[in-house]
Amino acid sequence: MRRTLFCGLVCACLGGAGTAAAQERSMTLAADVRLEQTGLLAHLVPRFALKTGIKVTVVAGQADDLAAAAAAADALVAPAAVVGGIHKGAGGPAPRPAFLSEDPSRGGAFAVLVVDGAAQATHAARFADWLTSEIGQRTVAQYTSPAGIRYRPGALALAEPEPAPPSGDADTGQKLAILHCGRCHVVSERNRFAGIGSTPSFAALRAIPDWLRKFQGFYAENPHPSFTQVEGVTDPFDPARPPHIAPVEITPEDLQAIVAYAASIPPKDLGPGVEAR
């Protein structure tokens, strides 16, 4: 009986330690609400989480409310003038240029700030480092909102991106792609009579100029968020809105394997583009 109780206590302690560790790999980001409205944050945050394993909770607010939001956050992304004012009153690390909106009404120049005394300052600093790094700046430059809104890198002057070759096991990726993606897409000759007619095949997707970005972040693009979970990256499904089909549940390693397989597929010849007359 004593041994059973001791084992139970050890398991409880280890379970608590695991929960605490999971909680520690998270941070809160205060951000201008316009970045949420254009979808830029939904583009950036999952990619940072996939790269680092750090989960980011976003608190979006109007410019007038950001000082209060920043006080309870670990990092802040907002117009440079707003960030400068908050930093002047709080001190701590200096803000860094992040990116610029091509539409001045969307906020102009934005900066990122690690909040002085942040509970998760290490993770916040890593987010700021990532956002202002070459990878983060390219991630910003790759984004175009559904309404056509774009942002330009503000920390680095960048040449045309040279995508890094994806890592992962392509053979494993093919099996995973057929299992998970083959319900909607034609993945290869192995399922050429499957899929949904209106859904592009993997070969057709490979012909898109930014195919790598689309494959790496497919889980954040509709309709995938409603039924796709990437372990440690995406939020749990809303209990009030369960998946309408059997969910796709993969790990970051699974995702890299699928991307590696996609890289091995020759792009489909889609013919000449449509010319206006």
UniProtKB/TrEMBL annotation:
Coiled coil: none
Signal peptide: 1-22
KW Ligase (keyword) present: no
Keywords: Heme, Iron, Metal-binding, Signal
Entry protein name: Mono/diheme cytochrome c family protein
Domain Cytochrome c stretches: 168-266
A Pfam match: Cytochrom_C
UniProt entry tagged with the keyword Metal-binding: yes
SUPFAM superfamilies, sorted: Cytochrome c (SSF46626)
InterPro entries, sorted: Cyt_c-like_dom (IPR009056), Cyt_c-like_dom_sf (IPR036909)
Native species: Rhodovulum iodosum
Superkingdom of source: Bacteria
